[in-house]
Fold each of these.
Amino acid sequence: MTAETFSSPIVTERLILQPVQNDLAQNLFDHINDWEVLRWLASPPWPYTLRDMHEWIARSNAARAAGRDADYAIILDGAPIGAIGITGRNTGPALGYWLARPFWGQGFMSEAAAALLTQMFASGERFVACGLLAGNTASLRIQEKLGFRVVNERYIHARPHGRPMPHMDTVLGRVHWLQSRRAA
């Protein structure tokens, strides 16, 4: 992905993946400030504040400008319903995401992730990592549907919980991705 790609929206059948920006902060905050959403994430603090959201957006924009990361708001009918992004582009890209509870189970995250992965692999990436906290069966289903495979289990510090939590590392290779897309 080029720096220009990082700044461009990605359009799917139902969604727009829009680079995160401050005018989306309140709506994104309203959705992530839900324990049932945040408890499955490893990095954000709990409780989560609007200031945390503004700081994350500022860090995201700086990382995008430097070509390291690409974080997007997932937009449905003009309003954000979650976020998705690729971090560590220069050191080994990793996919991360969250979705507001009212939108679970409708295929939105699978659609958003497929669009972002299509761009990543089209740009020449060979592998993308992901993962999930143990017990997050919905996220595991999404990753398996996309072709990710569990490659490791370990403990990671989950900041919202304030302690180490079991985590499953997953990875998806470009060859497997392209083969699965052709078969679909």
Note: Residues 50-65 form the longest helix (16 residues).
Amino acid sequence: MFWRRTIKNQLLMIILSICLLSLSVGFLVVGINYYDNNKQSMINDYQTQARLLAENAKGAVIRKNTASIMDVLNSIVMDGNSSAAIFDAIGQKLAMRDNNGKNYISEVEFKATTDYYWGPRYLHIWQIIGETNRMRGVVYLKISTEVFDQKLRTFALSSLLVLLALFVIIYIVATRMQKSISERLVGLDNISRKVSQSGNYSIRVPRYGDDEMVRLLDHLT
């Protein structure tokens, strides 16, 4: 059976363990890089959109033209679970866009700074309108990370399937590798039994190749 502590099974387990560990570490590194790169890309994209909104909305905010501010908010590309708002300098909400009616933005979410926060379900972005020392208002984006999370799940599932396929290939290759080693060790064991039983020290192990194992068998027999 596979789990018996024979030489060939132990060799197979060593080969599989090393290969599986190497693959797991490799996929972990790739997964971390994939997560970081996609997360940073999403943050950069929406920070860029927030800066454009702040520039386009500046005049309307100064005039407190709600209709123009709403037109600016409608120009941003967001998925159905995201929302956005524009506040004046003292935190009063001038306009809000809520795509599905479930992500209402209140005045308590106002933050007089340019910043972002990656939360469990949303990416929150604040962008000052105007200069820091003469703030006219703040653009606030509440972006759902649902699409990002789905991409991660798809990547994780794909990686798992690839890892399983590679494991099967490694198992087949490792089985052949350990067979070439274990067969010669088993042959040496059989020869030693014959020598001990018959007392005939002229018996030799057949040569297969010219590697370290063959030279070891030559010295032993």
Note: DSSP finds four helices and five strands in the chain.
Amino acid sequence: MNYDDILNLINKKEEEVKILHEEILDLKKQLGSLKIDNKVNFTKEDKIKIVMDYFRGRNDVFAFRLINKNNGSSYYMPACINAWKENVCNLKMKKKCNTCQYKVSQPITKDVVFNHMYGDKTIGIYPLLEDNTCYFLAFDFDNKKNDKSIANEVLAFVSICDLYNIPVALERSRSGKGIHIWIFFKKK
């Protein structure tokens, strides 16, 4: 192509861009005039199902988050059907839970998940299934120094996932200082 051909092509493309900009403005006007009710009204059962479908783990066991009253630290303890029962539960008798002969794991239920969702009781699930597979991965980026050092780490991680077309979900951690990244699988 010679100089005039290139100049003509540039002019033609600039005219196409101008037409596209006008079309975009027109579409934005049309969009603005539409009244769309984008609220989705999920039932309680719908919400629980969504959470349980994404955060699938073992159904036979889960853990409650507890706070140490002496120092304020948190920890998780497996939920037990016999927890705090008189003359049965080691905790009730001021003994260690892990040595209890009556320890029976409590299965996770929709009510347990609902109470977790609405802040009544924080739970932890066991994502690693008995066949050593899982339905999701969680990555925890902590910012213990209160600086912006994790921003680059999170951005790098998300960029690599994007490069390989791996969708991710991000959330701020409970403390507000960290980031959790979730990758969900359709199959285990």
Note: The radius of gyration is 26 Å.
Amino acid sequence: MWVKATIGAIPLDGFGIRGREPKTRLHGFLGILLIGLPGSGKSTVAQALAERFGIGVLSRDRLRESMFPMGHGAPLERRAAFRALLLALEISILLRHPVVIDGMSLARREDREALKRLLERFDAPWLGLYLDCPAEVAHARVLARRLTAAEGIAESTAPGVFACAARFDPVEPEILRLDARQARERLIEEACTRVRTEAERLGLLSASPTPAG
């Protein structure tokens, strides 16, 4: 069985969820949907949120790699991984573990609506962040990353940025827009501020205990 899960502040590896011990933790469930083109900074923001707030990262691409290690990112593989992501999200809701959705653009309204229907079925709070980035800028970032030796499967098999932009459905008004052209540090801080504001509104913030000794 490919799923290997460890529950708690720590990654559910088989579900593509990962995180580190944070100074501030979300006490209860919050689902964060990251929307944007490849190269817009979704994975950067997701990792920053994981480290800042102890949020698990649920990645469709990592699920797909685990399910189809010999695959090539075919549409059927991506759809199967998305179904697995929905199951992992449902489990996270039931366990009250906050998660951020990464590893896909969520360009299709159909996919965004599927996630929202699941969240709303359980009356689970969620926050949508749209990393608004011109296709030219995102494309240049992806090309730059592909020149590095650290390139991974998720990037090398990602759909073309311009093709993704061409089929990007208009984003719903309740989704918050972040200017993804700004510097990495500023984008991270803005995303963290948005999450903190929503978590405070929901009464989810709590400080992690300081280790003794």
Note: The chain has one domain: 13-206.
